[in-house]
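Second attempt. The first submission of Methenyltetrahydrofolate cyclohydrolase had a stray character pasted in from the spreadsheet, which I only caught after the job came back as garbage. Lesson logged: always re-copy from the clean sequence file. Corrected sequence (393 aa) follows.
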Amino acid sequence: MGGAAAAAVALLAATRRRPAAPPLAFLLPRVARAGLHEAAAPAAEEEKGRTRRRRRRSSSSRLLGPDIPDTWDPPLRAAARPPPPSGAGVDYESTATIIDGKSVAEDIRFQIAEEVRQMKNAVGHAPGLAVVLVGDRRDSESYVRYKIKGCEEVGIKSLLAELPGNCTEDVVVDSVSRFNEDPSVHGILVQLPLPQHMDEERILSAISLEKDVDGFHPLNVGNLALRSRKPLFVPCAAKACLELLLQSGIELMGKHVTVIGRSKVVGLPTSLLLQRHHATVSIIHAFTTNPEEITRQSDIVISAAGVANLVRGSWLKKGAVVIDVGTNPIEDPTSDYGYRLTGDVCFEEAVKVASAITPVPGGVGPVTIAMLLANTLDSAKLAYGLATESHEL
Ligand SMILES: Nc1nc(=O)c2c([nH]1)NC[C@@H]1CN(c3ccc(C(=O)N[C@@H](CCC(=O)O)C(=O)O)cc3)C=[N+]21
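This time the job returned cleanly.
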């Protein structure tokens, strides 16, 4: 086992021994229990017919998922299913398709740039995004640079408030309030994590609902969780994961997806979006006792734990699809900024087991930024009366 992977496993083990102070701040209960899946995958033809019938009476939304009511079928249908593929006899010679996040992001930005041009022609204004950066974490500074560069590429106006790490919470709230009142600002993003002494909840709740392009407002999270409702904004990284899966033509309905991590930035919203797409979702976190066993049963694994090399090749079922949301800075004196990014997944191992995988860098990251631009555009459209609800890419 490599040093980083050993450290990651030791970290997880240590977390279990000391439940009072988890180093991975994951807070939600485990879901996915046996028994529920029996009704989830009836005979394929029958399901297709039923889906068509249901689609006729209910609306469907690309990113928020097809709106199909739940009907439970008798478990005997399960007998008609083919046996699940076995993880045994793994063929270590094969190589997964690398999902190219950079090119997906480029296509999205191209589409956004066109819509921004149309908006400028129609109302004489461009969308505006305000970013609040507190402190001088090198990784946060890079992410903010990417966001501002993304804005420039599509014609979105960007504003940056850079505040010192030792400023008071009130100074940050004041900065957010000024952006709330600025009509040229349609999206406000407070870069996380904030310095330890600050109350994140208080600062994030200062962002007005209609400018919450990160989708962290409790009303946006609640509306994402309730299938009969539509949130104004969905968190960018969750949208990016779904976009990459949908564009890669990967079926989600009835599939077992494991999400590693339950943060409000990635894990939680991604698991909610997947359920809206009728996937069977397991969420695993620092207190899960058998993470490898759960991921090994999964058709799709989405990792957002923030632990480098946590997911080994042995954690995956042959042919699984792997989406790596981890962006873990690793010290690297040879790199320009003194660090480089690595994912949660041990790529060299996973690429031999998976059927498709996102790399880090060049996977989920660039699509996340593109989704932030999309949310900002949506917000501006709503503000200028150009749309009644947010568009779906
Ligand atoms: N309020 C808030 N909203 C966020 O969405 C948010 C946040 N705080 N805090 C931190 C995380 C992390 N995050 C990333 C976005 C893009 C890349 C990205 O573009 N990465 C590139 C560049 C990699 C490189 O530097 O080499 C890539 O993966 O190819 C990475 C990480 C957004 N986050």
